[in-house]
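Record pair follows.
FIRST:
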Amino acid sequence: MQSLPRRLPATDRGFTLIEMCAVVLVISVLALLAMSSYSQQIQKSRRVEAKNALLDLAAREQQLYSSINAYSTTPTDVGYTGASFPITVGSGYYQVSIAVTAATATAPATFTLTAVPIGSQAADTTCSKFTTNQLGAQSATDGGGADTSATCW
């Protein structure tokens, strides 16, 4: 006597198309959230390069000032390569420029260093510009020009 194949109950046959679609939807939402968070962390880590470059250049300008009593707008005077500012710093995500005012009879010489994002970092509108000056004052602005120093520095 031949036995017939045993039929599985309907609940033991696997996944339905709707269940699979729900799983794919949940995974897609989680992946989207993870990518967004990852991108923000990458932008944040690149900001550190800009801030370090500004502080390094400011220190070099101060060292030069102590030697010749003037700030320079030439990168080679402070140990950087390049003929003129702006110069690209770090991994190439920021450009740094300098504005120098010469000393007068009533005012000392000053400089202002500015780092702005370039390339893929230009999408970072939260901290889109970093500045520092000869006094060590640090500031940051967002894409609209609003002060974001408290969160960016």
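SECOND:
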Amino acid sequence: MLTDPKFRVEIELAIPFHDVDSMGVVWHGNYFRYFEIAREALLKQFGYGYREMKASGYVWPVVDTRVKYRGAILFEQRIGVRAQLEEYENRLRIGYEIVDAETKKRLTTGYTIQVAVNEKTQEMCFVSPDILFKRMGVA
């Protein structure tokens, strides 16, 4: 099921000057922005981007994350950011891989975990809401 191409995406980015430190290396906190850009592209592929999430009555905060820095990313470097849905029944776990766009060398890996929270009651859902399954095509 999660092998369907709509559950993975790759975007390409060029590293701007404002993302790097004085040594020309991407500041570590910016990796989460790159994950976020890829995550939104992934969610939009099956019709459940952030606007659709909010309209459905659920917010999906990130409750856990991990990043493993394997190689430096530099100013003006072109990178590919891959995002793939790994779990969805009780939470959204999305795995990431950042590669050099030219050589395809893996530079970074990571994941984020999001859980559904009912916007009105502010209660966390222990099972993902039906709207997610419907948008994914597994309802």
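COMMENT: The chain has a mean pLDDT of 96.
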